[in-house]
Amino acid sequence: MKVGDIVEAHKGERGIILDIELMYPNNKYSPPRSVNIHWFDEAPHWHRKGLYAHISGIKRVISRASW
Q1: What is the chain's pLDDT, residue by residue, as a tens digit (67 residues)?
Q2: Of 31, 39, 45, 65, which alpha carbon lies 20 to 30 A from 1's?
Q3: How far apart are CA 4 and CA 46, in angstroms?
Q4: What are the residues facing 7 on neighbouring strands?
């Protein structure tokens, strides 16, 4: 999962990842903890604008960024 990927939440909401917060910031192999997402249509009920969403709210990555 990286910036630019298109993701889907559990109820079908789709968005693009704008930023990723890592679990261990100083380790380049760290897994992601939370992401900042711009939702295309309607945001999930748990989303708060401007805050990072926990990675468990993401069902799958639909399209991977190629850069």
Answers
A1: 899 999 999 999 999 999 999 999 899 899 999 999 999 988 888 888 888 989 998 999 999 887 6
A2: 45
A3: 21
A4: 15, 61
- What's the pTM value of the predicted model, to 2 decimals? 0.84
Do the Cβ atoms of 17 and 36 come closer than 8 Å? yes
> Both tokens of residue 6?
């298109």
- Residue 60: exposure state from Cβ atoms within 10 A (0-12, 13-18, ≥19): exposed
Cβ-based neighbours of 28, under 8 Å, separated by 6 or more: none
Joined tokens for residue 65:
């960024």
Residue 45, in any domain of the structure: yes
Nearest to residue 51, comparing CAs of 38, 39, 41, 36? 36
